[in-house]
Amino acid sequence: TFEQTSQELTEMIAADRESQSGESSAEAVAVEDSISALLHGTPAGVLGNGATVGIGDGDVAGALSGRGAVARARLAQQGGGSAASEDAVTRGLRWLQAHQRADGSWCFDLTQCACEGRCTESGTEVSTTGATGLALLAFLGHGETHQEGDYQETVKRGLYYLTSQMLTTSHGGDLRGAGNMYSHGIASIALCEAYAMTRDKELEAFSQKAIDFILSAQSGGGGWRYLPGMPGDTTVSGWQVMALKSGQMAYLRVPFDAVVSANRFLDSVQSDRGARYSYLPHQTREGKELTTTAVGLLCRMYLGWPKEHPALRKGVELLTRDGPSMLGRSSNMYYNYYATQIMHQYGGEPWELWNSKMRDYLVRTQATEGHESGSWYFDGGQAHAGGRLYVTAVAVMTLEVYYRHMPLYAAHAVDH
């Protein structure tokens, strides 16, 4: 069965920790010796922007090559992770595993899984493709695939569920299910990452069809919203942009025109010369709009803005000044998730200041008792729709930031 008691969960996590701490010195030396070759890899192809990427650590494309077991430990240590933060990731993944449903899916409404409502704060969003995509992204971010790792069967069943739910249309493969383009974008990222990490040919067609549907759904203004062709908003567009970049990482067909159009949409929602972003184009810009600013800036990074771009530098200064959202139950993990990626990619002192706060806050606020052990819940940023499953998946991915994506601005990120 897929039901796991709190005691079973605790024993599994303790066993993981004991196994990790028992690594021999010889194994440690082997890990050390393989780091350079792992990070540099061998020439493999060219991204949409012309940057050469490498393959390494289980044939993972360069941008995702930090997820392998060898690189993961090193990058977490170098980037500011801790034993406690990695333990929190393990506990989070175990909680997610315990809440997978019999058909391989996840559901935001925890009363519909093996948990049977013993965990509080179930979500109200009905999309199982969105929930499944989010959970899978947490596993994939830790280097777990259906071919390698400690959760192979969990990931395999989740991927099978997504592919079984894809509706093939003349515009590509629709993964919205009972949801909208949020769900499709998230599920598409999961499929593309799984394909990029394994080169499993059975996933290639599904991944390309998912990308094709995003391309067909792009509005004339370059953005995306709830329905295909609908004038865009920044949050829905953010997931689609990241899906297109995941498609590029997997060497799928992503026309350059789509990237140009996405940049045009971002132009329509920017203010302060690109340092801030609103939810909708030409919207009255009141307040700080931190969440949409974080989404917009991360998209700009992945769409080609250099680190020296004045607007990016100013945007990072704004995020640094406000810091992570640490407001107890009202903390906004949607903002934290995007902003943490920006600060990590930007690096330097802003990242060091941000990381120590964000990392320790998540370690401190993770549930440690009962069936909720290993999970998180904050209701800021309208998190009630996704509930505890959504917040836990996003928190795990936030703590995986050290290795989930290789640095955009580091010398070894390209041309090796």
Q: How do the strands and helices of this protein lay out in sequence?
A:
Layout: H1 6-21, H2 25-40, E1 42-46, E2 52-56, E3 60-61, H3 69-79, H4 83-98, H5 128-141, H6 152-165, E4 167-169, E5 172-174, H7 181-198, H8 201-217, H9 234-249, H10 256-269, E6 270-271, E7 276-277, H11 290-302, H12 310-322, H13 333-346, H14 348-365, H15 387-399, H16 401-404
Antiparallel strand pairs: 1-2, 2-3, 4-5, 6-7
Helix pairs in contact: 1-4, 4-15, 5-6, 5-7, 5-15, 7-8, 7-9, 8-9, 9-10, 9-11, 11-13, 13-14, 13-15
Concise account of the structure shown:
The chain is mainly alpha-helical and 416 residues long. Helices cover 55% and strands 5% of the residues.
Largest sheet: 3 strands, antiparallel
The tally of strands reads 7
Measure the end-to-end span: 46 Å
Classify the helix fraction into a percent range. Answer: 40-55%
Q: How are the strands of the biggest sheet laid out side by side?
A: 1-2-3
Strand content: 5-15%
Number of helices: 16
So what's the oligomer here? single chain
Low-confidence parts: 1-6, 19-60, 411-416
Structural class: mainly alpha
Radius of gyration: 20 Å
The average pLDDT is: 86
